[in-house]
Amino acid sequence: MNFSHFLAVFKTILPRTGLYQQLLQKSFLALSISLLLFTLIGTKTLALLPSPWIVIDGVSNHREREVATAWISEVQSILNSKEFYENLTSLDKTYPFVYLRDNIIGTVSDVADIITLRAPNLRAVRTPMAIVGGIDTDYAFGGWTGDPLHEGDSSTSLTIGRTHLKRYFSQNQVEKSCAINTLAHELSHLIVTDQKLILHALTDTGITPPSRPINAIASYLIGTTAQCTWLEKANRLEPKNFPECVAIFGTLNFNSLRCNQFNNTSPLQLRPSLPPAAKPSWER
């Protein structure tokens, strides 16, 4: 029964006088609101990633902690947004074969279900993050201590070089968006498939080629989608150019050498003068 049909039937049975009518009217109002809310958001609700998901464990000063806190909060807000989910799932046909983990090949829809915690038996592991090195330290990696296959004997960690914090603090929107990319990528590795053990839902490929051809690696696709969604929300990227933005910054690796190739007005477009795309890890 649709809402209009329900309304028509209700009007034919509603008594016209007395307390009974008032009670029914109040009930009808509550039901109407519930139906309206379900119609508007019932099928759009996303599972929210936990916050704070990342705990800042090592920084050099209070200002750095403030910037890192804002960075983490902004990335989590992007990953929890309807725009991110819709942008990601719009790529389903563009990238039909996506590497998830352990030579498991899935779809963009699989990736969306994992990063939004819609897939069953997933959890996001609360993880300490340390900012390390100098402003030219550009590595970023997650890991664990102990044995991830034994309950209670391991914990995750996240180490980020200061290059990425510098990018987040940049006044250049594209460079800042690259910091969004990096942290979103690393956060994707902190979702696990077991309620007790550290079994990652998404991993990079490493040096061994995938068992069959792929178009994207889930963790890099998530990072780039988060980056380009942020640029959209900052009015730096038109929605129609979202797929090209994803191609610019990569789905098999992060094309970080392209981060400083755009000023705040230059169009985000592929062009011959851009540095070449970074090779996948198994080709380096």
Report on this structure:
There is one protein chain. This protein has 284 residues and is of the alpha/beta class. The protein has two domains: 3-41; 54-283, no CATH class. It contains nine helices and nine strands. The protein has helices at residues 3-13, 18-41, 62-79, 82-89, 108-115, 162-168, 173-188, 218-233, 242-249, and strands at 54-58, 98-101, 104-106, 123-124, 127-132, 140-146, 154-161, 191-192, 216-217. The strands form three sheets. A four-stranded mixed β-sheet has the order 1-5-7-6. A hairpin with a 7-residue loop joins strand 6 and strand 7 (154-161). Helix 8 (218-233) packs across helix 9 (242-249). It is globular and about 50 Å long. The model is unreliable at 1-17 and 22-46 (pLDDT under 50).
Topology, please?
Elements: H1 3-13, H2 18-41, E1 54-58, H3 62-79, H4 82-89, E2 98-101, E3 104-106, H5 108-115, E4 123-124, E5 127-132, E6 140-146, E7 154-161, H6 162-168, H7 173-188, E8 191-192, E9 216-217, H8 218-233, H9 242-249
Helix pairs in contact: 3-7, 4-8, 6-7, 7-8, 8-9
Any descriptors?
284 residues; 9 strands; disordered N terminus; four-stranded mixed sheet; 2 domains; three-stranded mixed sheet; globular; alpha/beta
At a glance:
This protein has helices spanning 3-13, 18-41, 62-79, 82-89, 108-115, 162-168, 173-188, 218-233, 242-249, and strands spanning 54-58, 98-101, 104-106, 123-124, 127-132, 140-146, 154-161, 191-192, 216-217. The chain has 284 residues and is an alpha/beta fold.
